[in-house]
Design a protein that fits this description.
The structure holds 2 protein chains of 2 kinds. Chain A has 2 domains: about 180 residues, no CATH class; about 170 residues, no CATH class. Helix content of chain A is about 55%, strand content about 15%. In chain A, β2 and β3 form a beta hairpin. In chain A, α1 crosses α11 and α9 packs across α11. The longest helix of chain A is centred in the C-terminal third of the chain and has 44 residues. Chain A is elongated and about 105 Å long. Helix content of chain B is about 35%, strand content about 25%. Chain B has a 6-stranded mixed sheet with strand order 6-7-8-3-9-10, with helices on both faces. A 4-stranded antiparallel sheet of chain B has the order 2-1-4-5, covered by helices on one side. Classes of the chains: A alpha+beta, B alpha/beta. Chains A and B meet through α1, α10, α11 and α13 of A and α2 and α3 of B. Bound molecules: adenosine-5'-triphosphate and magnesium ion (MG).
Chain lengths: ~400, ~240
Amino acid sequence: MKFKDVFEETYLALAVNKARSGLTVLGIVIGIASVIAMISVGAGAQGSIEASIQSIGSNLLLVYPSFARGVGEQVRGGFGSATTLTVDDANAIASQVQNIAAVAPQVTTNAQVIYQGQNTNAQVIGTTPNYTQVRNVQIAEGNFVSDTDVQSYNMVAVLGPTVVSNIFATGTDPLGATIRIKNYNFRVIGVAASQGGTGFGSADNAIYIPLSVAQHFFTGNSSVSTVNVEVASAQDMTQAQSDITNLLLQRHNIADPTHADFQVLNQASIIQTASAVTGTFTTLLGSIAGISLLVGGIGIMNMMLTTVTERTREIGLRKAIGAKRKDISTQFLMEAVMLTGIGGILGVALGYLISLLITSLSGTATAVSFESVVLAFGVSAVIGIVFGYYPSRRAAGLNPIEALRYE
Amino acid sequence: MIECRNIKKTYGEGGDASTQALKGVTFSVKDGEFVAIMGPSGSGKSTLMHIIGALDTPTSGEYLIDGKNIASFTDDELADIRREKIGFVFQAFNLLPRATVLRNVMLPLLYDGVPEEERKSRAKKALKAAGLDEEHFGHLSNQLSGGQMQRVAIARALVNNPAIILADEPTGNLDTVTGEIVLDTFQRLNEEQGRTIVLITHEPDIAEHAERIIHVKDGLIVKDGKEHVRRRVHHK
Ligand SMILES: Nc1ncnc2c1ncn2[C@@H]1O[C@H](COP(=O)(O)OP(=O)(O)OP(=O)(O)O)[C@@H](O)[C@H]1O
Ligand SMILES: [Mg+2]
């Protein structure tokens, strides 16, 4: 039997019962479309999380203070709330560790910001000029905090774009304006460019002021909340991480590394962790959608079994006039594969539309990857073969005489 | 040439409800013969036809088509024999209901790998030989009358040029006139094209068209003859 003939027989057989074929295809369409759409949501989330972690700088190591934890001791205080890290530590890292491009210590607080009766809450970051390089901050207007500002305790501030839009009327130039942060007056000397990201804790909702000012007026001590370290190249990350750890252990007189009063985080490992989390999330979404694909596949099998039973006499006749087992099984398998094939094409198209719709309605990033399309298509073809196999075998194995006698 | 040697067929063997449909049948049919098989209901005629037509294998005994014993053939080998040598006309027509007349007749050639154009032309030729008007070729087979369906079934049996045509009660559903026309068709196929025809019936009038009548009763041949038949019919 020629392929073209098999194809034509299949088409004619499916066309006889359009409603049933259509509903069966619908099951596959829904399954494939939900797999594509769900994976696109997961992949989109993964992409945007990775991008936002990348945007905070490259080859970045973050040093946080943490309470020492002795054997059998409880953890006291929260992450980063200890006061063990100092500007001197930051300077020591800059001068004594190899392959360091730049170091920027920072003090972070949250404060209310007021300008002409408009107020907002923002993250106030006291830091040094290196911060722009280490954390990838671009200046849109004016200047960033300078060394002189830090040394002279100048009351100057650089605003993130969200802060600007929250307290300044549109069209007003913030440069030179005097704003109040926690009842202290600051002169605006610059505006940072947007780094993307939304919501609380976004880099766009930050105000940068000199480190010395933040320590003197806001925290009242000489500790820092983070030391940002940019390593010269990606290959040096691991070495720099352990060098910093050793240096600080030595400076803090700690013999046992498990009792360290600080933590050195590697940006690459943060990305890895985030990817792993979003990867799990994608897999979960995909598997839930996969269940509906499975249900669609069972629908195919159900229809094929019904068809084989209904067409018992036809099968008997075909065998009586000379069809071999393979001719019969090929025909029924082809019917199942064609149903899933049509379902696959429509499902990919629908899934793509749904992911576009999700992006345009909710703003969530989605990414339909070539792999997910291939995967969905492959899966639907496999479903057609797997769920069509048993019914087609059953059809092929029918005894022609008994099939012809079937009522 | 087909040859049955002491063929037995038992249904549901070993079980409580086993039926011995054939109890040792021996006969042969030469190429070009027109044979009628007669007998009362349940005597084993259809069972015999299934074995002759390679649709089924005997429980014991030998069945030879052109010298080959097919008793031990596999499903697919039997399918080859049916496709190449045999044309069936079933008592219940067994046409595909939602397919056109032409597609029904083309069907056996599909499994022979004949190209579509040739399938069409051969199907049309067979339909004309079976005496169906061309206007019906495009009709769905369930829109036809009983007589027309019977012709389509005959055309389908002819389309692969089988050496042997087997017909199980081909006139059972037809009125006398239509039945006569169908039988005429068989007679022409036999006389003009030299095909072997085995026709099952329980009507003596129908059997009269054959040159030889085999009488079956309770799974055994009770009478097999030529002269005898004609005389018996003439006396009636
Ligand atoms: N598939 C089967 N399974 C079990 N028993 C069967 C089967 N086919 C036929 N038989 C039995 O075999 C015997 C012969 O049946 P068969 O169909 O050959 O009779 P027949 O001569 O064709 O009768 P009729 O003229 O009524 O068609 C009957 O007793 C029948 O019940
Ligand atoms: Mg019968």
